[in-house]
Amino acid sequence: MSVLEEWLEAACGELGLERGDIDRDLVLDLARDVAHGVARPGAPLTAYLLGLAVGRGAPARDAAARLTELAEGWRPPEPAPPADPASAAPAAAAAPVLDEA
Fold first, then answer.
1. Distance between first and last Cα of the chain
2. Which of 53, 68, 80, 87 could be joined to 58 by an S-S link, Cβ 3.0–4.6 Å?
3. Cα angle 43, 12, 38; round to 5
């Protein structure tokens, strides 16, 4: 048995889950797709979101497929262009100069 399988057995036991109910490859594939298509820190967060969705009754394969599709097509929003100095709010007007005549 691999270290990963031993860990899964122990973690499932700790949480009162059946090891046979956990699709290891489904979760790892999803994490890989998010790590490569979005950002590495998104992988564990997405796996957690998948777990929440499944806990609320979503079928694991359907939810993972939707997330994988989202990750594979992910394009981060374009950054806003820098502000045009001409359209920036006008600076406070200088105090008028009074003639001393």
1. 98
2. 53
3. 5
